[in-house]
């Protein structure tokens, strides 16, 4: 958050160092901010009311990872701050139902990450994966029985599996089953 605030300060015409001494560091930081193309924006009404500035960064657009082609060019995406990752991911992951009595829907990993990537920059896929691994509603859908082959409703998710999961891999039930089987095999040996 402090770096985000320093970037905003530079964009507003300040030094980005809160009046402290830094000599050449001030110039280097200002150059870095300008070279990355950071820009100030209005953001949401809530952020503006609270006096927060919103920082955007230009991102090249082209053919996405899913193979769908987008118009080539540059779009501005809001800079995600680490301290806000949870709130950002939660808001994109949990879709509120328009019906008052209906429970909110939980999007999957791909849908959640796509929604985040359309709006935010600098929020890694690993953060989304870690969030989903701790989402209690999503864990309920991924329960496994002791042999790891079939879902079972009454058994909580295995804590053994979470220690060896590669969070950079897409989360699929097949991947989780393989990891659980690997843990079980290593324990037997």
Q: In summary, what is this structure?
A:
The protein has helices at residues 2-11, 24-36, 45-49, 85-93, 109-119, 125-134, 136-141, 159-162, 173-188, and strands spanning 39-41, 54-63, 69-79, 94-95, 105-106, 120-121. It is an alpha+beta fold.
Question: How are the elements arranged and paired?
Answer:
Blueprint: H1 2-11, H2 24-36, E1 39-41, H3 45-49, E2 54-63, E3 69-79, H4 85-93, E4 94-95, E5 105-106, H5 109-119, E6 120-121, H6 125-134, H7 136-141, H8 159-162, H9 173-188
Parallel strand pairs: 3-6
Antiparallel strand pairs: 1-2, 2-3, 4-5
Helix pairs in contact: 4-5
How would you describe the overall organization of this protein?
With 189 residues, the chain is of the alpha+beta class. It has two domains: 1-63 and 71-78, no CATH class; 80-142, no CATH class. The chain has nine helices and six strands. The chain has helices at 2-11, 24-36, 45-49, 85-93, 109-119, 125-134, 136-141, 159-162, 173-188, and strands at 39-41, 54-63, 69-79, 94-95, 105-106, 120-121. The protein has a four-stranded mixed sheet. Strands 4-5 form a two-stranded antiparallel sheet. A hairpin with a 5-residue loop joins strand 2 and strand 3. Helix 4 packs across helix 5. The N and C termini lie far apart (47 Å).
Features:
single chain; 189 residues; alpha+beta; four-stranded mixed beta sheet; two-stranded antiparallel ribbon; NOL4 protein
Structural class: alpha+beta
Helix amount:
40-55%
Sequence stretches where pLDDT stays below 50 over 5 or more residues: 144-158
Strand order within the widest sheet? Answer: 1-2-3-6
The fraction of residues in strands falls at: 15-25%
- Rough outline: elongated
Helix-strand topology string: HHEHEEHEEHEHHHH
What radius of gyration results from the CA coordinates?
21 Å
The total of helices stands at 9
What's the N-to-C terminus distance? 47 Å
Number of self-contained structural domains? 2
Major beta sheet summary:
4 strands, mixed
Whole-number average pLDDT? Answer: 75
- Number-wise, the strands total 6
